[in-house]
């Protein structure tokens, strides 16, 4: 989602003639799209801003924009800490970014005169005989020439999250769920396919909670959207992330199985194998319910790859809780995972609890999870087809 949001914010700059700079010291403008889902990511963003002080000092006309989820949490305080920041654009205001960046450009440069004199025609000559790329019609879809796989088109179908997972800061920094209309999504997918992209990645914080009401009558859900995208000519593969187990219904599983273009892979975060911790995390499903979903997925689509997210060291996680997570892993036999040590995020419910698991224990548990995953994948590779 960070990549997709970055592409969306890059578009109004590209429309004005900006192109990607190969090196930092060549750049007139830096847009840093930040993450705050873990404190490590936020600290790294803060550190990177500090290092950009030198870049900015060498040419005060350069523009620094700090955007994204950490920007939502920091608010105006980050600009007070680093006065050389020209614009703070929170993740919740991404739709207003084109207008916000236009104001900054007008204050700093006469960008309209420069564009007219320096780049009179899209595709025309640059100084020194270079060519400015022709971006075609200014479609609001995100190009993938700057980020990600050359064959994957990222399409955001919704923003925000209505859940209240105890450890998660996302609802604070991205707001409540907002769904794009299906006709708008399909128009973007068609534009991507026409541009040559073969794979589409549908994105949302809880992507499968998506729904859209047409006027006062029909209501369409994520299963309907999958079927509609599957019918678009030129699209060869469809992926999506990240779904929430609560919305991985049998209706959605049937749609996934019926749609020939939907990749036989689902990333389904579990976070813990302990019912006690799942309740404390406010994940709204049990271990048994998660395992039932896995069974239904594999029955509908034999051979489907299932990957997951896991948190170790959540407040109060006992040795027994952790062992139940390992038994879940042995039962499901995930094809891959993202594993994280718990870190408290300001304003979340779990931040009010004692972070009572020593970092050494968190690290040991993290390594055990990673080692078990490696063992499972190795065993799977050794089994003859």
Total number of β-strand segments? 13
What do the pLDDT scores average to?
A: 88
Name of the CATH architecture of the largest domain: 3-Layer(aba) Sandwich
Order of helices and strands: HEHEHHEHHEEHEHEEEHEHEHHEHEH
| CATH fold description of the largest domain | Rossmann fold
Widest beta sheet: strand line-up: 1-2-3
* CATH homologous superfamily placement of the largest domain: Methylthiotransferase, N-terminal domain
- Shape, per Cα inertia axes: globular
Number of helices: 14
- Main sheet: strands, sense, barrel: 3 strands, parallel
Low-pLDDT stretches are 118-148
Distance between the termini: 35 Å
Q: What's the structural domain tally?
A: 3
Query: What structural category arises from helix and sheet content?
Result: alpha/beta
- Gyration radius, to the nearest Å? 23 Å
Please identify the top-level CATH class of the largest domain: Alpha Beta
**Considering DSSP H and I runs of 4 or more, what fraction of the residues is helical?**
40-55%
Q: Report strand %.
A: 15-25%
Can you offer a commentary on this structure?
The strands form 5 sheets. The chain has a 3-stranded parallel sheet, with helices on both faces. Strands 4-7-10 form a 3-stranded parallel sheet, sandwiched between helices. Strand 12 (305-312), helix 13 (319-332) and strand 13 form a beta-alpha-beta unit. Helix 9 (222-230) runs parallel beside helix 10 (250-258) and helix 10 (250-258) runs parallel beside helix 12. The two termini are 35 Å apart. The chain has 3 domains: 2-129, Rossmann fold, CATH 3.40.50.12160; 149-263, Transcription Regulator spoIIAA, CATH 3.30.750; 267-380, Transcription Regulator spoIIAA (2-Layer Sandwich), CATH 3.30.750.200. The chain is built from 14 helices and 13 strands. With 385 residues, it is α/β, with parallel strands linked by helices.
């Amino acid at each position: 989602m960070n990549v997709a949001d970055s592409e969306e914010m890059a578009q109004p700059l590209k429309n004005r003639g900006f192109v990607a700079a190969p090196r930092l010291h060549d750049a007139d403008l830096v847009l840093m799209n930040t993450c705050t889902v873990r404190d490590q990511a936020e600290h790294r963003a803060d550190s990177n801003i500090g290092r950009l002080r030198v870049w900015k000092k060498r040419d005060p006309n350069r523009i620094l924009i700090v955007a994204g989820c950490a920007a939502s949490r920091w608010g105006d305080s980050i600009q007070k800490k680093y006065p050389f920041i020209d614009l703070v654009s929170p993740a919740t205001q991404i739709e207003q970014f084109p207008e916000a960046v236009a104001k900054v450009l007008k204050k700093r440069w006469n960008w309209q005169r420069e564009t007219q004199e320096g780049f009179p025609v899209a595709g025309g000559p640059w100084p020194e005989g270079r060519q400015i790329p022709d971006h075609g019609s200014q479609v609001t879809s995100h190009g993938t020439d700057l980020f990600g796989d050359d064959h994957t088109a990222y399409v955001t179908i919704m923003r925000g999250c209505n859940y209240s997972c105890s450890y998660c800061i996302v609802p604070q920094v991205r707001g409540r769920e907002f769904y794009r209309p299906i006709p708008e999504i399909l128009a973007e997918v068609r534009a991507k396919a026409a541009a040559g992209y073969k794979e589409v990645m549908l994105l949302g914080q809880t992507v499968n909670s998506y729904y859209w009401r047409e006027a006062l009558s029909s209501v369409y859900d994520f299963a309907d959207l999958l079927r509609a995208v599957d019918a678009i000519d030129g699209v060869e593969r469809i992926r999506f992330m990240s779904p929430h187990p609560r919305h991985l219904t049998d209706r959605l599983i049937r749609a996934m199985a019926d749609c020939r273009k939907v990749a036989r892979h689902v990333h389904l975060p579990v976070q813990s194998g302990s019912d006690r911790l799942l309740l404390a995390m406010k994940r709204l499903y049990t271990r048994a319910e998660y395992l039932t979903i896995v069974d239904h997925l594999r029955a509908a689509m034999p051979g489907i790859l299932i990957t997951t997210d896991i948190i170790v060291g959540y407040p109060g996680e006992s040795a027994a809780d952790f062992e139940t997570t390992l038994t879940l892993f042995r039962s499901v036999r995930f094809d891959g995972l993202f594993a994280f040590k718990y870190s408290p995020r300001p304003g979340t419910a779990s931040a009010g609890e004692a972070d009572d698991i020593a970092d050494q224990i968190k690290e040991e548990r993290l390594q055990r999870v990673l080692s078990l995953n490696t063992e499972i994948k190795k065993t799977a590779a050794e089994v003859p087809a």
